[in-house]
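Subject: Sanity check before I submit

Could someone independently write out the structure tokens for this chain? I want to compare against mine line by line before I put it in a report. The sequence has 283 residues.
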Amino acid sequence: MVVLLRMALIALAISWTPADRAFAEPASFPDLADSVAGRKDVTFADLIRLVAPRIAANGEASSGDGAIDVRHIGGEAWSSPAPEAMKLLKLAALPARSGGLDRMVLLLDFGQARDSASGFAVLALFDVTGEPRLLDATDVAFDRWTSFAEPGRLAIGEGDDLLVTRSTHSNSSQGYATTALVLLREDRFELVDRISTLDDRACAFERTQRLDIRQGTGAPFADIEATVTERTAGSGEQCGDATAPEPGTRTIAVTYRWDAAGQRYIADSDAFAALARENEERF
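---
Independent answer below. Compare away.
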């Protein structure tokens, strides 16, 4: 029995290739001098210089003075120029797939955009199978701080992935988040939707909104199932004449389905747009 179990484990190890393991991993946070997986001759600094050519590989305080022009994933209305003095504040890496091919995605946080309160965060796509090539790059900052969400990647297509980023900022009583659903298709980033959520609290209550993203069924691209769960709890404090919302839980759900004719995802309702308008009234 032990021999049979050992043989089964060996067979599983053989069938589970290193590439499969890499694409099951969450986002990592490498140093610039680290080698890209499978490429001892290519570092993350080499990839970043394809976005910001003069970035310096000097540890956490990496700095430079310029980046290539990138579009904003949300369109021209969201576009902000890159900071005058480029400084890489955070680097996150995530293996991904496009058209069935292995790719590397980096999320580069360069801090605050020029003449804007929003950040400047570049989502960059690379082919690292040969001489490293930058395939696409887009600004995904919808707020001050941007990172990969959890999950940061869903394998929703036949060899194509969905990437999920989240932009946030907060003050003493409110926390703001914008989650971007980004389809990686034909080596290009395409925005599926952006979903805004708000946490707020006052003397008499605390309210949270949590977003969950799941992969559904369907082909050639699976449904994307998004659910916001809002929970409101009373504090039990005496707050004068302040009126607190009723405690309880509600869910707001939207499913995005692939439209073959339009070659894009379409939401089955405008529930998230209505939630965004409702939250704006609480700002």
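---
OP: Matches mine. For the report I'm noting this point. Helices lie at 2-15, 18-22, 44-48, 271-280.
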